[in-house]
Amino acid sequence: MSDHLLVLLRHGQSEWNLKNLFTGWRDVDLTDQGVEEARLAGRKLKAQALRFDVAFTSALKRAQRTLDIMLQELGQTGLPIVRDQALNERDYGDLVGLNKDDARKRWGDEQVHIWRRSYDIAPPGGESLRDTAARVLPYYLQEILPRVLRGERVLVAAHGNSLRALVMVLDGHTTESILKLNLETGVPLIYRLNEDSTVASKLDLAA
Predict the structure, then answer these.
(1) Are 88 and 159 in contact (CB under 8 A)?
(2) CATH architecture of the domain with residue range 5-204
(3) Catalytic residue (one of 11, 37, 127, 159)
(4) Which residue in 4, 37, 89, 159 is the catalytic one?
(5) Mean pLDDT, rounded, for 136-164
(6) Which range is least confidently modeled, 123-132, 175-184, 194-203?
(7) What is the percent of the chain with per-residue pLDDT over 70, rounded to a whole number?
(8) Is 89 annotated as catalytic?
(9) pTM for the structure as a whole
(10) Structure letter (DSSP) for residue 77
(11) Residue 61 neighbours by CB under 8 Å, 6+ apart
């Protein structure tokens, strides 16, 4: 009997997280703290005695490097890895590269909060969370979920908003409640799914 394991993790702190910049699809690396967060995430998963059959990540190196570091800690560096831009962070469009505090001064706290947290309002030239979900969810349904339901143990290292789009469905968030959800860097979320793909249990390893 399989426990239909799915583990989700936002990458460790990136250079632009540290600088408080909108990152989106810009391909920045991890900070030293981000590397340590990835190592700790790997150790936490090892402490749970978890082993994986396949891993998925985005086309961006901050997620890929986080995954690689975690797999080193798990002793699973030979694990098959699938990389796809469907799991990339949302595209922040014209905000990419801007400091979030500067953006608030320019457009106001409320407008920037709407762009960052709302479900269906996109920043200029970028993607809303709904737009992000429109690429993440079909990929999940077609490529990731079938493997989980076949009994493969799946690890996904991706980004705050690509994972928010997925967690929104898994946890049954509404377009209002999703506004309050923020996924911390480097924190594994361990899901076990039922045969019908609903969530049987969830364990947040933030502690």
Answers:
(1) yes
(2) 3-Layer(aba) Sandwich (3.40)
(3) 11
(4) 89
(5) 97
(6) 175-184
(7) 99
(8) yes
(9) 0.95
(10) T
(11) 27, 28, 29
